[in-house]
């Protein structure tokens, strides 16, 4: 049985400016700002929440089924990547005369960033429908076009398929009423600690009240690990120390791949959270959201090293 991963599919275009933005931007002249930065290096990464989560789950041996939209102008490269990895594309729709979603990010020598995001085909994510997928056991609604997030949550619930609601970067799109509706539909909710506070503020529900409405509320806390609220208790999940910290982009998505695998396999929250924590650490050791590639044996060994016991089978 497969896991259906609703979310964005995007390209991340990452450029490096070998200087300092502050030396080229005059505060007293920002009302007539007109600057150009030479960026001699650029790399293009496969990204988007659905792509990143599917990649993580696939590494673990899960049957990951991304559900999202690409643009016909530039989407073929992503489709070829999925095919090469052996990830099914039957729930990926290619929209004519559109670009795929993509971020353009320029970083200077002080790690300041200038970024622009073109949503492109992502805004048509609602054209995909949960009921069109076959043999689905579990799902996730990750950041995507707003209409797609709303409709896919309703469709998962109507089909009786348990799913994680993961608002992430899409959280500013939701008001209190729509957030409360999504939480009531969801089986699980996954957010980071800042997002948890924002969800609480928007819904008017405390963290405990949110947790009481779902089977589990998963709150990631960066280097402090994570907390999983379930059955009136809290499971503290330790962070896994990375061998090197290169790039946090996509760590939360890698974590969610581990969550989905553990839930599907019935590992229990302690083991599921620890596996998710490990997947985030493996990702942060590499540049780009989909460039880490441990074997399943290597994942098992790192789990044993981190926690002193084997990963459940």
In words, what does this structure look like?
The chain has a single domain (2-10, 47-101, 120-307), classed as UDP-N-acetylmuramoyl-L-alanine:D-glutamate ligase (3-Layer(aba) Sandwich). By secondary structure, it is an alpha/beta fold. The protein has helices spanning 49-59, 76-85, 146-159, 176-185, 193-203, 207-212, 251-265, 269-284, 296-307; strands at residues 2-6, 10-16, 41-47, 64-71, 92-95, 101-107, 113-118, 136-141, 163-165, 188-192, 216-220, 226-230, 233-237. It has a nine-stranded mixed beta sheet with strand order 5-4-1-8-9-10-11-12-13, with helices on both faces. It has a four-stranded mixed beta sheet with strand order 3-2-6-7. A hairpin with a 5-residue loop joins β11 (216-220) and β12. The protein contains nine helices and 13 strands.
Quick overview:
The protein is of the alpha/beta class and 313 residues long. The chain contains 9 helices and 13 strands.
Sheet with the most strands? 9 strands, mixed
CATH architecture: 3-Layer(aba) Sandwich
Name the strands of the widest sheet in spatial order.
5-4-1-8-9-10-11-12-13
What's the CATH topology label? UDP-N-acetylmuramoyl-L-alanine:D-glutamate ligase
Highest CATH level, the class: Alpha Beta
As residue ranges, the low-confidence spans are none
| Residue-averaged pLDDT | 96
C-alpha geometry: globular
Q: Total helix count? A: 9
Q: Count the strands?
A: 13
What Rg, in angstroms, do the CA atoms define? 20 Å
Category from helices, strands and their pairing = alpha/beta
Distance between the termini: 17 Å
Helix content bin: 25-40%
Strand content: 15-25%
SSE string, helix = H, strand = E? Answer: EEEHEHEEEEHEHEHHEEEHHH
What is the CATH superfamily classification? Ribokinase
């Amino acid at each position: 049985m497969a896991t259906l991963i609703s979310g964005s599919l995007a390209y991340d275009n990452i450029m490096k400016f070998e200087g300092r933005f502050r030396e080229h931007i005059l505060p007293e002249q920002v009302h007539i700002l007109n600057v150009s930065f030479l960026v001699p290096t650029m790399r293009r990464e496969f990204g988007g929440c659905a792509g990143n989560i599917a990649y993580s789950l696939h590494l673990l041996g899960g049957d990951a089924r991304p559900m999202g939209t690409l643009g016909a102008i530039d989407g073929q490269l992503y489709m070829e990547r999925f095919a090469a990895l052996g990830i099914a594309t039957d729930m990926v729709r290619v929209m004519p005369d559109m670009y795929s979603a993509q971020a353009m990010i320029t970083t200077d020598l002080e790690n300041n960033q200038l970024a622009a995001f073109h949503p492109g085909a992502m805004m048509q994510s609602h054209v995909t429908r949960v009921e069109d997928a076959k043999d689905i056991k579990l799902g996730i609604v990750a950041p995507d076009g707003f209409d797609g997030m709303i409709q896919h949550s309703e469709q998962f619930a109507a089909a009786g398929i348990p799913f994680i609601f993961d608002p992430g970067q899409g959280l500013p799109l939701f008001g209190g009423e729509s957030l409360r509706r999504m939480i009531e539909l969801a089986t699980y909710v996954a957010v980071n600690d800042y997002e948890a506070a924002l969800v609480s503020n928007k819904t008017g529900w405390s963290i405990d009240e949110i947790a009481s409405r779902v089977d589990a509320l998963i709150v990631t806390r960066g280097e402090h690990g994570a907390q999983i609220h379930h059955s009136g208790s809290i499971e503290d999940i330790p962070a896994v120390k990375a061998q090197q910290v290169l790039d946090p982009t996509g760590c939360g998505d890698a974590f969610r791949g581990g969550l989905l695998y553990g839930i599907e396999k019935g590992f229990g929250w302690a083991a599921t959270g620890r596996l998710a924590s490990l997947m985030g650490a493996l990702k942060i050791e590499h540049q780009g959201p989909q460039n880490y590639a441990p074997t399943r044996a290597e994942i098992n060994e790192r789990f044993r090293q981190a926690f002193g016991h084997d990963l459940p089978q």
